[in-house]
């Protein structure tokens, strides 16, 4: 028997392979090959058998020929029109189905928050599939007792008549905390709330309908963090002592409709519509749709001294988003995932926190974080929790801007609302379209990332000539920290168009981190009407073995 012995090092994998040559030879985009047997395709995650051990790799990292081979080899019953969704999901939702009408009035007017919480609790542990078949108002506001916790093995499916109306302010609407095997299908969520322009003006929060006066900023968020700790103690065996509590992630994240933390895993969000009324102004937009953040694992004692590391804590993993539509929002996704797919994403009206007249962009004191459709970043300063095995594909950010850019003075900036802000490892972003005037992307610290087939327009004059279309922010030029750099990044087949009459900021900006390595920009085109910036238009990339190929096209003057 012929035996192949190979050491394969690519995309962060080091595999010693000893397998019969009758196995299929898979070819990766960078030309490397590996002999293996195909096992399964789940969304965009491919499981291969290599020497009897399962290895999971993103589908997008294979050659086009092998991507077809993998899809053709997948188990019967796949759905070509919805490839990343439920067809390959082996989880069987409970056949027993019960209507939300058993717990709520379902007229969309009366507050049904209490009934919804009871229904979700009853549906956990595979008791039944909860069916939302009527309009349901969930009044949360600033009440820390009202967010709905989604527990293990919960399945919730909407019919065409199902609708949740939510109004959470500085606390989430739904919480997934160290929970797994959750299926949320065909949801319709209408947001009818709005954030305060001044997070210090709330002067407290509500708890079970009673107002608790409390000075300081973002008090509902601070108080709700204690509720999360209590739930984890009661339901997940976490004991907080000596001043410890649940992880604090800042007020912006606590505004999310879906707040996912810790070891939450195997969660599918499929066919979601999240929107505000057509008449809503930019001050009434969804603050954040989804967030995923680090938390301590279940069944342990947590003190303030306990290290937040991979042995003690986790970020959400194996999370799938398919066919998601956002209309009227600030943030789409923010946080950190270990294994996540985002497929068929459509985004329409967006903005930044603002008052009812469109002023105070970013809030008083710019307390609200600069928003993006995707903001996926390291979850800690030491880069222990990084985005891993992420695949973002088939995205159209229509970029229907409401409001103005938050920064006008280049010497006093807090950030801008470009479409994609991403850092991670072993990840792939493809077929991405953005028409945001705020710009396309910030590329953060990353390793083994491919970004391909991207089209974007932006307007540098809308940004007051302060920010570029694509930026590579990182540590200062004289700092070289492990993980704080860009390594093995490929950007190919990208077109960026500045719609401004005159471009004064480099469309693709510099990357000055000294530990950069193997950055490739291939078939990148930049179109603009007139260059009037300081110095040359080409960016500078520090580091080793970088290959930058950008073609500039001058459009007719406007």
Keywords:
four-stranded antiparallel beta sheet, SH3 type barrels, 3 helices, globular, 558 residues, mainly beta, disordered N terminus, 23-stranded parallel beta sheet
Low-confidence stretches: 1-22, 75-87, 476-480
| Fourth-tier CATH superfamily name of the domain at 3-76 | SLA1 homology domain 1
- Quote the CATH topology of the domain at 3-76: SH3 type barrels
Mean pLDDT reading? 88
The residue fraction in helices comes out at: under 10%
CATH architecture of the domain at 3-76: Roll
The tally of helices reads: 3
Total number of β-strand segments?
A: 35
Amino- and carboxy-terminal Cα gap: 70 Å
Radius of gyration: 24 Å
Structural classification: mainly beta
Q: What profile does the largest beta sheet have?
A: 23 strands, parallel
Highest-level CATH class of the domain at 3-76:
Mainly Beta
Proportion of β residues? 35-45%
Gross morphology is globular
């Amino acid at each position: 028997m012929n035996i192949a012995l190979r050491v394969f090092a690519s995309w962060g994998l080091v595999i010693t392979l000893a397998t019969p040559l009758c196995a299929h030879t898979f070819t990766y985009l960078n030309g490397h090959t590996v002999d293996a047997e195909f096992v399964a395709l789940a969304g965009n995650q491919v499981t291969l058998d290599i020497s009897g051990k399962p290895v999971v790799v993103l589908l997008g990292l294979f050659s086009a020929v092998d991507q077809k081979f993998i899809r053709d080899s997948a188990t019967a019953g796949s759905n070509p029109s919805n490839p990343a969704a439920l067809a390959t999901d082996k989880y069987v939702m409970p056949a027993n189905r019960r209507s939300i009408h058993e717990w709520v009035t379902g007229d969309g007017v009366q507050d049904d928050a209490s009934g919804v919480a009871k229904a979700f609790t009853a549906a956990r542990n595979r008791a039944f599939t909860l069916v939302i078949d009527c309009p349901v108002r969930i009044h949360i506001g600033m009440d820390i007792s009202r967010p709905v916790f989604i527990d293990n093995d919960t399945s919730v499916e909407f019919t065409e008549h199902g609708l949740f109306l939510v109004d959470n302010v500085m606390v989430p609407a739904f919480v997934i905390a160290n929970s797994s095997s959750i299926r949320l299908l065909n949801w319709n969520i209408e947001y009818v709330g709005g954030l305060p322009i001044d997070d210090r003006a709330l002067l407290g929060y509500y708890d079970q309908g009673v107002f608790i006066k409390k000075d300081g900023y973002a008090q509902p968020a601070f108080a709700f963090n204690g509720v999360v700790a209590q739930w984890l103690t009661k339901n997940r065996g976490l004991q907080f002592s000596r001043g410890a509590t649940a992880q604090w992630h800042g007020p912006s994240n606590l505004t999310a409709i879906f707040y996912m933390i810790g070891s939450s895993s195997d969660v599918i969000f499929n066919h979601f519509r999240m929107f505000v009324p057509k008449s809503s102004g930019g001050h009434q937009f969804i603050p954040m749709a989804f967030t995923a953040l680090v938390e301590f694992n279940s069944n342990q004692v947590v003190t303030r001294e306990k290290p937040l590391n991979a042995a003690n804590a986790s970020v959400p993993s194996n999370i799938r988003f398919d066919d998601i539509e956002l209309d009227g929002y600030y943030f789409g996704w923010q946080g950190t995932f270990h294994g996540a797919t985002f497929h068929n994403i459509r985004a329409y009206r967006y903005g930044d926190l603002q008052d009812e007249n469109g002023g105070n962009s970013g809030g008083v004191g710019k307390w609200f974080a600069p928003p993006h459709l995707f903001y996926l970043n390291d979850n800690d300063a030491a880069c222990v929790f990084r985005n891993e095995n992420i695949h973002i594909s088939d995205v159209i950010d229509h970029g229907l801007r409401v409001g103005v850019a938050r920064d006008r003075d280049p010497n006093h900036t807090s950030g801008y609302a470009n479409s994609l802000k991403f850092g991670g490892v072993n990840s792939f972003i493809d077929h991405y379209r953005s028409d945001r005037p705020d710009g396309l992307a910030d590329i953060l610290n990353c390793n083994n990332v491919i970004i391909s087939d991207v089209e974007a327009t932006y307007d540098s004059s809308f940004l007051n000539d302060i920010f570029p279309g694509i930026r590579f922010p990182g540590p200062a030029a004289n700092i070289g920290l492990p993980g704080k750099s860009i390594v093995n990044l490929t950007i190919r087949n990208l077109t960026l168009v500045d719609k401004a009459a005159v471009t004064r900021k480099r469309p693709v900006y510099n990357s000055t981190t000294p530990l950069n390595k193997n950055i490739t920009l291939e078939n990148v085109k930049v179109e603009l009407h007139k260059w009037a910036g300081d110095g040359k238009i080409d960016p500078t990339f520090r580091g080793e073995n970088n290959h930058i190929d950008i073609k500039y096209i001058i459009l007719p003057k406007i």
